[in-house]
Design a protein that fits this description.
The chain has about 300 residues and is α/β, with parallel strands linked by helices. Among the domains are: about 70 residues, Orthogonal Bundle (Arc Repressor Mutant, subunit A); about 100 residues, D-Maltodextrin-Binding Protein, domain 2 (3-Layer(aba) Sandwich). The chain is built from 13 helices and 11 strands. The strands form 3 sheets. Strands 3, 4, 5, 6, 9, 10 and 11 form a 7-stranded mixed β-sheet that branches. A two-stranded antiparallel ribbon has the order 1-2. A two-stranded parallel sheet has the order 7-8. The N and C termini lie far apart (about 50 Å).
Length: about 300
């Protein structure tokens, strides 16, 4: 094999990012047949199947390092061209994919992006996942960087501690009176409805174990939207842990009360990104660290 074809690598990345051969063809302005031919040629060169033809398409184990390479090459290529001939115009577009946990995305992380200098042709592709699972997308090469609770560096990545996101246990005064008249006891927790983001979200269960000393499984409402999650608590559907940045307004107005005054849960967060010398990554990392230092514990 005489090296890897950059066009084929870009096509592989487009198929995985867009989820189908047809969508990749629209992005690259070529036919679906050309997309298929490029991916097949790359698979023949490597001697491995690189894409699972599912809906959406996904990289195989063999395809993941090539997907990561494709993203790194695209980023470095754009920066080299910008250095050589000035800011790109027209079709010079590069996406930087970042995966962030929902609470960071709803609170402090967008401010980090807003601090970056405006760059022609640079776009962000933000993904959302639980903080305990965000590094999975780094491992498979789908994203360039991640906000994560995992402090162990993914292979080929750097890791930086950002601080901790603090959570407080909230409910409406009426809900608290009805279910927690004697406080956040194990007996009350087993019957009081709990609002949870999704099935990956175990923050509340971690808090309950810390407070009661027991692994409890309360009745659960799943609400996979940060605005709807907070509104469900305000409407008395259940209780839950809320980031202090969101909880502050509801506590100040009396719409909600703290179910465990003096008790909270701090989730350490880390920034992991490809080990790559890139002006874009360096600028993004500096902005993320600065905003995190102002916002997190």
């Amino acid at each position: 094999m005489n090296g890897l074809d950059s066009a084929q690598l870009r096509t592989l990345a487009a198929v995985v990012a867009e989820g189908s051969f047809e969508a990749a063809a629209r992005l690259l302005h070529i036919t679906p047949s050309a997309v298929s031919q490029r991916v097949k040629a790359l698979e023949e060169a490597v001697g491995q199947v690189l894409v699972r033809r599912t809906r959406p398409c996904a990289a195989t184990e063999a395809g993941r390092p090539l997907l990561r390479l494709a993203g790194q090459l695209a980023l470095l290529e754009r920066e080299a061209l910008a250095d050589a001939r000035g800011p790109l115009t027209g079709g010079g577009r590069t996406r930087v994919a970042v995966v962030v946990n929902a609470d960071s995305l709803a609170t402090w992380f967008p401010a980090a992006l807003a601090r970056l200098p405006q760059r022609s042709g640079l776009f962000f592709d933000l993904r959302q996942d639980d903080q305990d699972h965000t590094t999975e997308l780094l491992r498979d090469g789908s994203v360039t960087a991640a906000v994560t609770a995992q402090r162990e560096a993914v292979q080929g990545c750097r890791v930086i501690r950002l601080g901790a996101m603090r959570y407080q246990a909230l409910a409406t005064p009426e809900f608290a009176a009805a279910h927690f008249a004697d406080g956040l006891t194990a007996a009350a927790v087993t019957t009081a409805p709990l609002v949870v983001f999704d099935r990956k979200d175990r923050v509340q269960h971690r808090f309950l174990r810390a407070v009661t000393g027991r692994p409890l499984e309360p009745p659960v409402h799943y609400v996979p939207s940060v605005p709807a999650f907070s509104e469900a608590i305000r409407l008395g559907l259940g209780w839950s842990l809320v980031p202090e940045q969101i909880a502050a307004a509801d506590l100040a107005t009396g719409r909600c009360v703290d179910l465990a005054p003096g008790r909270h849960l701090d989730i350490p967060l880390y920034w992991q990104h490809w080990r790559l010398e890139s002006d874009v990554l360096n600028a993004l990392t500096a902005a993320v660290r600065a905003v995190a230092a102002e916002t997190l514990r």
